[in-house]
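Subject: DUF3159 domain-containing protein

B.,
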Amino acid sequence: MSDEERPAASDRRPSDLTPPEPSASGVLGAALGEAARKAGFDPSTEASTGGVVWRAMGGFRGVLEAVLPGLVFIVVFTLTTDPDTREADLWLSLGLSVGVAAVFTLIRLVQRGPAGAAFGGLIATAVAAGLALWTGRGQDNFIPGLITNAAYGTAFLISALVGWSLIGLAAGFLMNEGVAWRRDRRKRRVYFWLAIAWAGLFFARLAVQLPLYFANEVAALGTLKLVMGLPLFAPLAAVTWLAVRTLYPRRPE
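Prediction pasted inline below.
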């Protein structure tokens, strides 16, 4: 069609000017990529691996917020456990744990931090504590964490098996290539194994913690939850960052 035969912009139908609807993979990739960027995982930036992982953990305060509520619960629960009846002061243990989370939330609000980040940890801690108080069993304080591990592990595993790795979707959005990485065999392979590794982490937590849950070993369950938390998250996050950066080498200016 010649230039004379093409309709002018003012003569085009509204449907010709409407941008295409975003695909499901694009929407999911954008959501995952934005979450990764907020967490500090942005392969397009110049940052050290240690700095990226430290930021992803929330820095010193983030580490304290992730560890202290659970640690307080374990310590108080253990100290108040009767060796004969194996019963502990559940109200005191959970109350102090929620109290620590509330203090961190208050600090964030005073410092005018994002409301979502401020209340996220407190709500999670309060829901878990409420469930344990409702059932009267200390191990039920860990049910939300077990469910989260099962959900994340399943999501990563399925995404890898169907060829739409969640890691690849997030990285594709961050690197402005959408889902073009699926046409690159090397990228597909790397993203597949990264998703498998993350699924393995979540399922490993379940494999270790579920038997302790059913055995009513509250102190051991809480301790291993902390041990298998940030200490395992940090090295896998570092490996993921390095692998993705290797796929997108920096070009000279």
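Residues 185-214 form the longest helix (30 residues).

T.
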